[in-house]
Amino acid sequence: MAELLVIRHAQASFGQDNYDRLSDLGHEQSRVVGDALRASGWEPDRLITGTLTRQKETLASMGFSEPPEEHPGLNEYDFHDLLRVRFNGTIPDLVMGDRKTHFRTLRETILDWQKGGLSGAKESWRDFETRVAAARAFATDTDAKRVLVISSGGPIGQLTARALDAPDAQMMALNLQVKNTSLTRFIFSNRAFFLHEFNATPHLADAARAHLLTYS
């Protein structure tokens, strides 16, 4: 059996014009999780990211120098597009600027999307499901025994929900729990794929690193 270790990207730039880049704290989170993996003796045989800048920057700041493979199925759903469709083109300032309002609204929006709503969005829920499944197939079609993936909260929630054979709505409950640089581990073979660990942050357990724990 082999391991697929999926790490959510570090803290991005919430509330900024360009969300798709790491904050200074995000670079620190990345360094800490990379050091923790090496200290534990866990060295990957294969590196994969999505195509998003925040995912690539996370891997780079983790200190792994080999160029990764990329798969767009590991990218986050386009939440800005989904919110624009929901609000007819103009997202209210409160939704984008207030974290509590943002994530409550995002949850409601994704649940509607899953049920076939938000006609006109760039990507349907079924398309999202299909590309995440394709990314899983890509990552596990390998002779590597330790595959390290840098992804985002939505795909991690979806991979976990499918491994548990959970209903669609459970994906969003999982998605909203996923912490920056958390570890979600799957065990796989040609015939099996199951969850071993979800959303773990042992590298942030020390009280001196409590300030590094973030969700967005």
Structural class determined from secondary elements: alpha/beta
Radius of gyration: 17 Å
What characterizes the major β-sheet? 6 strands, mixed
SS field, number of helical segments: 8
Q: What's the β-strand tally?
A: 6
Whole-number average pLDDT? 95
CATH superfamily annotation of the largest domain? Phosphoglycerate mutase-like
Describe this structure in words.
The chain is an alpha/beta fold and 216 residues long. The protein has two domains: 2-76 and 139-212, Rossmann fold, CATH 3.40.50; 78-122, no CATH class. 42% of the residues lie in helices and 15% in strands. The chain is built from eight helices and six strands, in the order E-H-E-H-E-H-H-H-H-E-H-H-E-E. Helix 3 packs across helix 5. The longest helix has 16 residues, at 24-39. The two termini are 32 Å apart.
